[in-house]
Amino acid sequence: MKAFITAIVALVILAAGMNFALDNAGFSAAEQTSSDRNVRLGD
């Protein structure tokens, strides 16, 4: 049971840390799915 609790805590810490790291690296969902490069704004 102790190993299970340790694994859950490690998983939560790892997931939160990677979420923070990827957001700061520019891999957030908002930055990956929105772009103004493919939009024509006039001629």
What is the gist of this entry?
This protein is mainly α and 43 residues long.
Features:
43 residues; mainly alpha; 2 helices; 67% helix; 0% strand; rod-shaped; signal; Entericidin EcnA/B family protein
Q: Beta-strand level of the residues, as a percent range?
A: under 5%
Point out poorly predicted stretches.
none
Helix content: 55-70%
Based on CA atoms alone, the radius of gyration comes out at: 18 Å
Q: Can you count the beta strands?
A: 0
Please give a structural write-up.
This protein has a domain at 2-26. Helix content is 67%, strand content 0%. 0% of the residues are buried. It has helices spanning 2-25, 29-33. It is mostly helical and 43 residues long. It has 2 helices and no strands. This is Entericidin EcnA/B family protein. It comes from Sulfitobacter pontiacus. Residues 1-21 form the signal peptide. Keywords: Signal.
List the helices and strands and how they pair.
Layout: H1 2-25, H2 29-33
Keywords: Signal
Protein name: Entericidin EcnA/B family protein
Signal peptide: 1-21
